[in-house]
Amino acid sequence: MNAKGKAWIVAAIGAVEALKDQGFARWNYPLRSLKQHAETNLRSLVQANKLSSSSAMALSKVKDEKKIKESEESLRKVMYLSCWGPN
After folding, report:
1. Mean pLDDT over residues 80-87, rounded?
2. Is 42 exposed, middle or buried (0-12, 13-18, 19+ CB in 10 A)?
3. Which InterPro entries does the protein's record reference (predicted)?
4. 10 near 1, Cβ under 8 Å?
5. Cβ contacts of residue 4 below 8 Å, gap of 6+?
6. Structural domain contains residue 50
7. Residue 2: inside a domain, yes or no?
8. 13 neighbors 38 (Cβ within 8 angstroms)
9. Does 42 map to a domain?
10. Is residue 11 part of a domain?
């Protein structure tokens, strides 16, 4: 959800709270349900973003480890050839 969508949700919740203050108690249940639904969706969106960023970090870490291992193997080969290779 983009920032514009979040702003609309916040504005809707603010309008709901203002209407509740003016005595629109009969709308209390539907408004509370709408507010709860919006909060739940935002919470799941935030959790999904956290999971995707943590999985991206894990993938990056695996790539870095592979690159380090390859460079160490290359250095090991160079050292071996410089010591024991044909002169």
Report:
1. 74
2. middle
3. DUF3774_wound-induced
4. no
5. none
6. yes
7. no
8. yes
9. yes
10. no
Q: How many domains does the chain have?
A: 1
Q: What is the pLDDT of residue 7?
A: 79
pLDDT tens for each residue of 18-71: 776 666 556 667 777 888 888 777 777 776 666 667 777 777 888 888 888 999
Copy the structure tokens of residue 32.
Answer: 């509370």
**Angstrom distances, CA of residue 51 to CA of 16, 42, 55, 58, 63:** 32, 14, 6, 11, 18
- Amino acid making up residue 47: Q
Report d(CA 42, CA 7) in Å as an integer: 12
Output the pLDDT for position 27: 63
Domain limits at 76?
Answer: 24-84
Q: How many CB atoms lie within 10 A of CB 16?
A: 19
- The pTM score is 0.34
Integer CA distances (angstroms), 34 to 24, 47, 53, in order: 15, 20, 29
